[in-house]
Structure formats: C-alpha cells, structure tokens
Design brief:
Blueprint lengths: L1 H9 L22 H12 L2 E6 L2 E6 L2 H10 L1 H4 L6 H6 L13 H14 L2 H6 L1 H20 L6 H18 L4 H11 L5 H23 L11 H11 L10 H11 L1
Antiparallel strand pairs: 1-2
Helix pairs in contact: 8-9, 10-11, 11-13
C-alpha cells in the first residue's frame, strides 16, 4: 500500500539522481551546490528534482525553462515554501517576506510602498542616519588617534543595526540585538525556536504597549511602529487586509 501511494505521488516528477535513505541527494551537492546542480543537470536534464533530506526540490538549469517558469507559471512559483520555523516566527506568515502570494501579500506590499518606504518617509529619517554616521566617524577617529585597529565590518554592521532600530523602534536596543543573535544561531530545535519566538513576542509587545500609552511623550516624527499603529487604529482596511498587532510584530521581525 505504501509503495503504491509513493509511486502514484512520484509518477509526474521530473528525473532525479539516485538517492540515499534519509539524506536523499544532499551528498551530491558538495561545497558549491550551484555547480554540483549544473553537473547533475547535464545527465538528468534541465528540469530535475532533488531530495534534500525529506524536502523535495525542483532544480531548473536552463534559461529557456526558467523563462517559462518565471513568466508563464509565475503565480505558481512566487510563494515561499511553508516552513514550520517561518510559520512560528512570523505569526503564521503574517509578514511581507513569507506571506503567500495573494490579496493579503499585495496589500501589505502596498502599505510598505505608500506608507513606510516612500521617498517622503525615508527623507524624514535623514537626521537619524546623519547622527549615527557621525557617531561612527567619531568612533573611528578616536581609534585612529590612539593608533588602535578598527574592525570596519563590525562598525558597518553596528551602524546599519542602529539606524534600523531607531527608524523602526525609536531606540537602539541591545536586548533585541541579543535575541536576534540567538535567532541566527538556531539549529532547528523546536524548543529553542519557540523560546526565541516568545522572547521576541514579549519585546515587540512591550514596544507596542509603550507606543499606545497615553503618557508617552509625542515625538516630532513617527517611526515605523507609529505609522503601522495609525493604520491599525483607523482600520481603513487596505482591501481585504486588516492590520493587527500580530501583523506589526511579524513585520518587525523580518525587517530587523
């Protein structure tokens, strides 16, 4: 019975190299997967499928076929895989990056273009960028005067993180940086993933609660959370998509 079901499911799949139990074709990818895939395609054709562990993947190695896939069948291939990790961390795909293509994804993208990342909105954050760049230059100058080495990679990463945090959260938070660092170290263990999710959820909720507080001091310019909360409060409902606090937290997770 199991073999019949398996054969029925696989009968329409493109050609594939021989697989091994559990790992599938992982052993054939090598250290440079794109080159290994190209070599395999010479034998198995421009359209083939590989099993990466239990994940089935279709590999396209032809410009002509790629054009067909990305143009003719664009709607069938423009959504990301529904991975459990992404599902957990994005509140069931409520963000922009992992949301499946459809009405919700189009409306969220419209909000980003018109409300969050418009030229006018980006210009309002110019003072933040200038302040953070000045801080970095002063720090490098200080190291130069003392003849001490400077790790420019770390400086640029810190600059980018500071600007993003201030634009999105109105502050530079070392706490969320540590949580994000833990997120990048995830090894696929469910418990660690859920712990990171709980920590991030609690942090984002505290930031949102602070924005909603009637005693909060009004600032001259709104950050990203302020803009999104205004949309939630007005509930204008961009099309069929109504924003909630979960949407805001999912958006923050991906953009931070």
């Amino acid at each position: 019975m199991k073999r019949r079901i398996s054969n029925k499911q696989n009968k329409n799949l493109p050609p594939s190299p021989p697989t091994l139990p559990f790992i599938g074709n992982l052993h054939q990818l090598g250290s440079i997967p794109q080159q290994s895939s190209w070599q395999l395609s010479k034998k198995h054709g421009p359209v083939m499928h590989l099993r990466l562990g239990k994940m089935l993947t279709v590999v396209i190695s032809s410009a002509e076929v790629s054009k067909v896939v990305l143009k003719t069948y664009d709607l069938d291939s423009c959504s990301r895989p529904t991975l459990q990790g992404a599902r957990t961390l994005t509140y069931n795909f409520q963000d922009l990056a992992f949301a499946p293509y459809g009405e919700y994804q189009r409306e969220i993208r419209k909000i980003c273009v018109l409300e969050l990342f418009s030229v006018k909105r980006v210009q309002t954050y110019r003072s933040i960028r200038e302040e953070e760049i000045t801080k970095m230059i002063n720090s490098i100058s200080h190291h130069s005067s003392s003849s001490s080495p400077v790790d420019l990679t770390k400086k640029m990463f810190a600059l980018t993180a500071s600007i993003i945090f201030r634009v999105a959260l109105e502050q530079v938070s070392k706490g969320v940086t540590l949580i994000i660092t833990d997120l990048m170290k995830l090894s696929g263990l469910r418990q660690r993933r859920e712990k990171v999710f709980r920590d991030l959820d609690a942090f984002f909720q505290s930031v949102i609660d602070d924005r909603c507080s009637p005693w909060r001091t009004k600032r001259q310019q709104d950050d990203i959370i302020d803009v999104l909360l205004k949309i939630v409060k007005e509930q204008t409902g961009f099309g069929a998509a109504l924003l909630t606090e979960k949407n805001i937290k999912a958006f923050l997770l991906v953009n931070l």
